[in-house]
Design a protein that fits this description.
heterodimer; A: 163 residues; alpha+beta; Alpha-Beta Plaits; 2 domains; 4 helices; B: 573 residues; alpha/beta; Rossmann fold; six-stranded parallel beta sheet; AHAS_small-like_ACT (chain A); transferase (chain A); acetolactate synthase activity (chain A)
Chain lengths: 163, 573
């Protein structure tokens, strides 16, 4: 099962390498990863997606918690949550394709952020499967370049991950 | 406030931590620190002959005393030589501080002479590591390092120190912090009371209980309480390789070591049990055999300070996360409160069954009147010669298993071996660390002709500091454990398991300034042992030739349950 684990950790050099190292060292998989400082500059928020059954995820979270620089963490997929990913994608846009791509962008509520005579650069946000669906709709042959931010997430309601 | 250089701060912090010994080897990037060490006499530096030995010596010191072992190495090869020792300490949860020199801050990343990314290289084998980026931070980093290494589940901590941060001309105010506050590190201080009460109820209901005690009991200073609990309940106790000595080896309730080379009765008791009280043990693969066939009828109560150990390999029915000492104490008072007693009738039947196993297949081996000596006889002779009261360090292989099986450890911290990582070359330097901690104690290093050669250069260190370690070299002229597996699983094809061109160990010991003895006949063994141990102030290297074809039994059959064992070359369960 796919899980989104969100980690609050000390914003210190080497902290990220410990998190990443833990995954490779223990044979766990990271599907996506995003990290940036929070409103408190001493803390970073790291969000990663991984796959595993309950037992494996329990081990992952226990080991993450053991890392000295990890302050707190939550498995967002345990409760109601919002997940978002940002994608910038360059697609071929010539001839009849031009209008077709534009229509798809509108349907997916994306924005065209750069244009040339042959290329549209599209910005799209949403859950990862929505971004996958957009690529499917455009057709892979039309795609020139894709860059995705990795998943960010936050729980719904009053629950917060903070100190 | 006192103004000190970074180098002086490092040394002063060691003094403030009450460090008696630091094991190390100098080199370019730690020279400022060595100069500061030279100008004081509280912290004694022990010069080893290889950095790996420094880590094992500090490790042996830590295992014997419970205090953290401290190491200093230079950058590059000095640091990488410490990796095996870090990994050894990490696997067995031993508190250790390694100070590694680093090239100047402005050279880091430039592939400077003797530069290695030590933080990166050591990352998977340390509990935590620090890089000194500003000399001002040294007191706080040192305090945190000792705190992290010694609290919670202990482990090694590395501090990487670029040379410019220790420069003698840059002074900063020094004050050693009294307390540590870390928002991201708070070791558990108490086990859950509800869980402890639940465990007590389960223990009261048990008809075929067993206490399975590991190294955590020793590390967590829980030996006395565990012994009290076991006596109070009259439950059988089995120890892991790391737990030997946490419950007296000669106690009739002790069914011996369990696992791959555990006793028949220990493995049978485990397999047939209905409740297992696992204390400070990690249910690792050398114990469980095939996890799917592990103790099918048992409910598992698992006490450990590390939540990640619980339900990692085997699901615990009643997990209790907490310090062994505190949890056992609370468990004893919960027993008082409960007021009940375990089912005595059931326990009586259970003990009858266990005694039956003991009688049929207890530890034994065959001797041959005129043939070569057996390695087991050597360990038994050692036990006799030392009155069972020595500190015994060991290397890794058959001799290690014999020393675990045939020497009865009645006290914690007496049996010192690399259980988790299985590091050959551990025994001699570890024995040095123990001897430094207890100069008047009898320290024996049980080793083999393979292992001893992995750190034999330390004979020179032993001479320098007058360490009267007794080396019991169980010489079977082969890598015994490797060969045992080759005999059993590879059709007897002894690929690379011979030790050809062995040195004359007696001459070698003498060349290093020690006493060497060669023993080839059983009838000479006891006399030679007594003679060796009578030389109180000399290192004696006993080169004892034994039967090269001997195997370690019992031996669990791969992929089986705990009760599937070879009991000798021809009998199996």
């Amino acid at each position: 099962m796919r899980r989104i684990i969100s980690i609050l950790m000390e914003n210190e050099p080497g902290a990220l390498s410990r998190v990443i190292g833990l995954f490779s060292q223990r044979g766990y998989n990271i599907e996506s990863l995003s990290v940036a400082p929070t409103e408190d500059s001493t803390l970073s928020r790291l969000t990663l997606t991984t796959f595993g059954n309950d037992l494996k995820i329990e081990q992952i979270t226990k080991h993450l918690n053991k890392l000295i620089e990890v302050v707190k963490l939550v498995d967002l997929t345990e409760g109601a949550h919002i997940e978002r990913e940002l994608m910038l994608i360059k697609v071929k846009a010539t001839g009849a394709q031009r209008a077709e791509v534009k229509r798809s962008v509108d349907i997916f509520r994306g924005q065209i952020v750069d244009v040339t005579s042959t290329v549209y650069t599209v910005q799209l946000t949403g859950a990862s499967d929505k971004l996958d669906a957009f690529i499917g709709a455009i057709g892979e042959t039309q795609v020139l370049e894709v860059v995705r931010s990795g998943v960010s997430g936050i729980s719904r309601g009053e629950k917060v991950l903070s100190l | 406030m006192e103004m000190l250089s970074g180098a002086e701060m490092v040394v002063r912090a060691l003094q403030d931590e009450g460090v008696e010994y630091i094991f190390g080897y100098p080199g370019g990037s730690v020279l400022h620190i060595y100069d500061a060490l030279f100008q004081q006499d509280t912290v004694n530096h022990i010069l080893v002959r290889h950095e790996q030995a420094a880590t094992h010596a500090a490790d042996g010191y830590a295992r014997a005393t419970g205090k953290p072992g401290v190491v200093m190495v230079t950058s590059g090869p000095g640091a990488t030589n410490a990796i095996t020792g870090l990994a050894t300490a990490f696997m067995d949860s031993i508190p250790m501080i390694v100070l590694s020199g680093q090239v100047r801050s402005d050279w880091i990343g430039d592939d400077a002479f003797q530069e290695t990314d030590m933080i990166g290289v050591s990352r998977p084998v340390v509990k935590h590591s620090f890089m000194v980026r500003d000399a001002k931070d040294i007191p706080e980093i040192m305090k945190k390092a000792f705190y992290i290494a010694t609290t919670g589940r202990p482990g090694p901590v590395l501090i990487d120190i670029p040379k410019d941060q220790t420069a003698p001309n840059v002074k900063n105010p020094y004050e050693y912090p009294k307390k540590v506050k870390m928002r991201s590190y708070a070791p558990v201080s108490r086990g859950h009371s509800g869980q402890i009460r639940k465990a007590v109820e389960e223990l009261m209901k048990a008809k075929r209980p067993v206490i399975y005690a590991g190294g955590g009991v020793i590390q967590g200073e829980g030996s006395e309480l565990l012994t009290k609990l076991a006596h109070r309940l009259n439950f059988p106790v089995t120890n892991t390789l790391m737990g030997l000595g946490c419950f007296p080896g000669t106690d009739p309730q002790n069914v011996g070591m369990l696992g791959m080379h555990g006793t028949y009765e220990a493995n049978m008791t485990m397999h047939s049990s209905d409740v297992i009280l696992a204390v400070g043990a990690r249910l690792d693969d050398r114990v469980t055999n095939n996890v799917k066939k592990f103790c099918p009828g048992a409910k598992i109560i698992h006490i450990d300070i590390d939540p990640a150990t619980i339900s990692k390999n085997i699901m615990a029915h009643i997990p209790i996360v907490g310090p062994v000492h505190q949890v056992l104490e609370e468990m004893l008072s919960a027993l008082d409160e409960h007021g009940g007693e375990p089912d005595q009738k059931a326990l009586e039947r259970w003990w009858e069954e266990i005694e039956g196993w003991r009688k049929v297949h207890g530890m034994r081996y065959e001797t041959n009147e005129n043939g070569p000596m057996k390695p087991q006889q050597v360990v038994e002779a050692l036990y006799k010669a030392t009155g069972g009261d020595a500190y015994v360090t060991s290397d890794v292989g058959q001799h290690q298993m014999f020393a675990a099986q045939y020497y009865k450890y009645d006290k914690p911290r007496r049996w010192i071996n690399s259980g988790g990582l299985g590091t050959m070359g551990f025994g001699l330097p570890a024995a040095m660390g123990v001897q430094f901690a207890f100069p008047d104690a009898t320290v024996a290093c049980v080793t083999g002709e393979g292992s001893i050669q992995m750190n034999i250069q330390e004979l020179s260190t032993c001479l320098q500091y007058g360490l009267p370690v007794k080396i019991i070299n169980i010489n079977n002229q082969a890598l015994g454990m490797v060969r045992q597996w080759q005999d059993m699983q590879y059709g007897g094809r002894h690929s690379q398991s011979y030790m050809e061109s062995l040195p004359d160990f007696v001459a070698l010991a003498e060349a290093y300034g020690h006493v060497g003895m060669k023993v080839t006949k059983f009838e000479d063994l006891e006399g030679a042992m007594n003679e060796a141990f009578a030389l109180k102030d000399r290192l004696v290297f006993m080169d004892i030739y034994v039967d090269p074809t001997e195997h370690v039994y019992p031996m669990q059959i791969a992929d089986g349950s705990m009760r599937d064992m070879w009991l000798s070359k021809t009998e199996r369960t």
